[in-house]
Amino acid sequence: MILKDSKKMLQYLDALLTYGNFTRAAKALYISQPYLTQLIQKLEKELQVEIINRTAKHLQLTEAGKLYYNYLETLENETAKFDDQLSQYTTPNGTTIKLGVLSTLGSYLLPLFLPQFLQTHPDVKILVDENKPQRNEANALDGKIDFYIGQNPETLSSNLIFHECGNHSYFAIIPPTSDFFDQTKTVLPLGSIPMAELLGEQLLLTSSGSAIRRQVDYLLQKYQVQPNIAVESDNIFTIFNLSKLGTGVTIVPEEIIGSLPQQPAYNLYPLSDHLISINFFIAHRADKTLSSVEQDLITAFLAPFN
User: Fold this and answer.
1) Residue from 11, 16, 20, 19 nearest 102 by CA
2) DSSP string, 136-165
3) Are 301 and 282 in contact (CB under 8 A)?
4) Scanning 41, 48, 234, 248, which has its CA 20 to 30 A from the CA of 106?
5) Mind giving me the DSSP string for 112-136?
């Protein structure tokens, strides 16, 4: 098999199905478009059947492709079962907890609570599975992970129980290239920029399907704005840094901004919580019986925001 890593191949296929074409999928995966195209072609040659329907406007799986996708999911399920069985020997005196989280979100949230939790529970082993929100939710429902950590739980399956924290604000990053930039200020007054005009700027956005993007898409629809999107990325830090350098306006949660610049190299424009806000959550299957250690993990997750 050309690519034996079923997890990686599922990520490639998920990206193709999400973005609908090879160029945007490759960009989201941080690989080249020719590499992704050739990989799928070689795989189809090995399988002796097409797995991608290229005649559709938005790429879809063929019937053979659906069968292959299910095969990859079965491999992932078997791998997860094997890891569970093996853990009793690799960590005989401890507990293993599997967390699913988007990589950029995990880079911010996990350091806030995991170090202290592990100090209290030194025998616990944490396995972090970094995936897109849709995959994390599916893995939580299938029992492949113990907890799914995400943001804005409104669309979560009713078969998951979630514990949320906070109500965190968003800011628009106004670069010096924008007409709204004010070199005399760091933070612009709330309400000083009409929302429709702000959304009409050249935008840098997180990829479709992310919690932040869903909220921005709602605003675009609400204010009937056809967006001018210059850059899309799975990595919110990439978008944030590009915006600061003048590539375009973006919208980010307050948690990633960090310290303010001494000189106003860019402006922060606060957005009303009535329009857009962010809540973090940790979720598990509704039928899961939590151990005392797992309950402690939830408490540790919520603690930094209380």
Assistant:
1) 11
2) HHHHHHHTSSSEEEEE-GGG--TTEEEEEE
3) yes
4) 248
5) HHHHHHHHH-TTEEEEEEE--HHHH
pLDDT reported for residue 91: 55
How far CA 284 is from CA of 95, 100, 147, 155, 290, in Å, comes to 17, 10, 5, 14, 9
Structural domains in the chain, sorted by start: 6-73 (1.10.10.10), 92-165+279-305 (3.40.190.10), 167-278 (3.40.190.290)
Is 174 in a helix, a strand, or coil? strand
The first and second tokens of residue 171, run together, are 């800011």
> For 244-267, how does the pLDDT look when each residue is reduced to its tens digit (9 = 90+)?
999 999 999 887 887 666 667 899
Tell me which H or E stretch contains 13. Answer: helix 6-19
Predicted confidence at residue 92, as pLDDT, reads: 53
Exposure string for 239-252, b = 16+ CB within 10 A, e = fewer: bbebbbeebbbbbb
Please give the pLDDT value at position 88. 57
* CA-closest candidate to residue 109, choices 303, 288, 293, 301: 301
Please report, as a single letter, which amino acid is at residue 262: Q
* Encoded tokens for 85: 């069985």
Report how far residue 8's alpha carbon sits from residue 32's, in angstroms, rounded to the nearest whole number.
Answer: 15
Rounded to the nearest integer, the mean pLDDT of the chain is 87
Mind spelling out the 3-state secondary structure of 182-251? CCCCCECCCCCCCHHHHHCCEEEEECCCCHHHHHHHHHHHHCCCCCEEEEEECCHHHHHHHHHCCCCEEE
Identity of the amino acid at 72: L
